[in-house]
Amino acid sequence: MSMPSGQPPGPSGGQRGPVQPTRSARMSAWVRRRPIWSALIAIVIVIIAVAVPVVTGALSGTQAETVYIVHQSARAVTPISTITNVAGKPIRVGSGPIAIAVAPDGKTVYVVNAYSDTVTPITTATNTPGKPIRVGKAPYRIAITPNGQTAYVTNYESNTVTPITIATNTAGKPIKVGGSPQTIAMTPDGKTAYVIGGSTVTPITTATGTPGKPIEVGGVQDLSVRGANAITPDGKTLYVANPDSGTVTPITTATNTAGTPIRVGRGPGAIAITPDGKTAYVASGADYPGWGTVTPVTTATNTAGKPIRVGGQPFAIVVTRDGRTAYVVSFTAGTVTPITTATNTPGKPIKAGKEPFALVIAS
Q1: How far from chain centre, in Å, is Cα 268?
Q2: What contacts 333, CB < 8 A, 6 or more positions away?
Q3: pLDDT in tens, 155-194
Q4: In whole angstroms, what is the distance from residue 203 CA to residue 104 CA?
Q5: Which residue, 266, 273, 209, 267, is CA-closest to 236?
Q6: What is the pLDDT of residue 61?
Q7: Of 260, 265, 225, 209, which is closest to residue 239 (Cα–Cα)?
Q8: How far apart are CA 276 and CA 233, in angstroms?
Q9: CA torsion, points 256, 259, 265, 266, in degrees to nearest 10?
Q10: How far apart are CA 193 and CA 152, in angstroms?
């Protein structure tokens, strides 16, 4: 998933327990530089919506699916049928749900609860929650290996990543990574997980749970707050969004070396790559309520194309399995905009309800 990032909230919208002085100073400086985001953080603490179709294809009108909306203030997940657009009974989860992922077989949805320090598994066939899984402090994002065997959860305040064995839903030994880990991306072969933390990206060898040498991605002091990353289908290149500099940095995974940053729109915060690996779509404008663009980047040459206008504050973007359409969530507009990838033209925005935060299509 390519999910966008807001600041991991504490139980009262601020700190939870002692906070490292360096992190506190960094976050305070970040909020001072971005009053819009300061207000947005307060909004996110009230409600965060994450839409997760469990079966691929309905967005293209070919199959039915279920959309799961996560409401943080209600501590619940609401399933909605895309056929009837009727909401089902809310599913109770932990406190402060902030991220969600679906197992490759579509049988289980995993909800990350930032305040409870847990992950709640939900059986999609019956929409019943299982026993919460204890992880680190302030868990923030989750990624699942392609073989469906392990889920990896970033723990913002523990500076760790917790592996969860899917078969038993048990947490393993935490993996130490860089400061304030947040976004995480998995290579297609499942051998490496890349974790954004601070101004670095840390590769983790999943077979051993060993972190590698952090990769410096320049000029992104608040990368851990709202940076995003995505990996090409062939696993050769990792693209990292640099919100401060308005660029995307390509990283060659074979050598873990950063390439020349690619100029995109202001405040890039979400990336999605087409299944054929030819184009990376970068959503920009997370800092700007009335403005948003999606920039197509040709991966063969790492050149940016003409930006595509979308609704304000595009927090997330996904591409359908057939690669024909990209869907962009606009937080301010409360819409999802479809983009035809063959022509890079936006379609009519789809009303998505109040303050949609993220969108994930599960196969």
Answers
A1: 13
A2: 311, 312, 313, 349
A3: 999 999 999 999 999 999 999 987 788 888 899 999 999 9
A4: 22
A5: 273
A6: 45
A7: 260
A8: 7
A9: 70
A10: 8
| pTM of structure | 0.70
Taking 60 as the threshold, does the pLDDT of residue 310 lie above it? yes
pLDDT tens string 41-92: 322 323 334 444 444 344 444 455 666 766 666 687 777 665 565 567 888 9
* Gap between the Cα atoms of 185 and 220, Å rounded: 18
What are the distances in angstroms from CA 173 to CA 7, 150, 157, 161?
A: 25, 13, 16, 9
Q: How far is CA 80 from CA 64, 67, 70, 84, 335, in A?
A: 11, 5, 11, 8, 16
Token pair, residue 129, equals: 């929650």
CA–CA distance, 34 with 301 (Å, rounded to integer): 33
For the chain, which domains are there? 21-359 (2.130.10.10)
**Length in residues, the chain:** 363
Residues with Cβ within 8 Å of 264's Cβ and at least 6 positions away in sequence, in order, are: 241, 246, 247, 248, 282, 284, 295, 297, 304, 307
168's tokens: 């038993």
